[in-house]
Amino acid sequence: MSSDTNYRSAGSNDLDLASLFGLVGKTAVVTGGSRGIGYMIAAGLVTNGVNVFITARKAADCDAAAAELDAMSDSATCRSIPADLADEAGLASFVSTLREHTDSVDILVNNAGAAWGAPLGEFPEAGFDKVMDINVKAPFMLTQELLPELERNATPEDPGRVIMIGSIDGIRVPAGDNYSYSASKAGIQMLARHLAGHLVRRNLTVNSIAPGPFESKMMAYMLADEDSRHMVEGNVPRGRIGSAADIAGTVIFLASRAGAFTTGAIVPVDGGISTIRLG
After folding, report:
1. What is the number of H-type helices and E-type strands within the chain?
2. Among 2, 33, 105, 221, which lies 20 to 30 A Cα-Cα from 42?
């Protein structure tokens, strides 16, 4: 059969929206899911029929967010498993509790992150270690621990998905003094590519998303008043900050049949910031 015949034989049912982007019945883990981008991603997944487990360090916030997310859908659930994934005991506790509820994970979104800023010459070692532990080490260790669950339902046509949330600050040079943050986000984006190369034959894809400005605790001080918000928006070619639809839609693409052939990619979701020419 010729390649042209193969192309023409694709059934229309394979190309409709439900087949391309449908996720009903899948199971996902979203770290840092109690607020900001993580909450937006979890909301997008639950709304589209995915059973989601969220985790965050603050138990009360995690539980409250899970209750809100669970109420968003009649066909999917959201459960809270609070944990500090940067701590060895915390990660072990999270995985143990998760395994009490499911033996498979179709989508792992490593989103939890931290930032630190200090002038060059005054940047503390503790600030570097904390950010690297949370932003790079914890996602790697969690992904490694959950490989059996990720492979459980993975097939060549529908691989298991790992999605790392990096940052545009891991691609461009930031204006601020968040040295450990930019290093960590460049690191997690390269880590995703490295893992992708090693896991592709195991029916797992690994991609990263590099967001620009979104509503989050990290951005709160920059979006606190109208003037500062306008300044941030003015630095984005699209003229606005990101929305829940922007980030959730990208995750849904990478997690769905439409994204099954994409691995090792870094997807900027930044309103065009990465395209700005210097000078």
Report:
1. 11, 7
2. 221
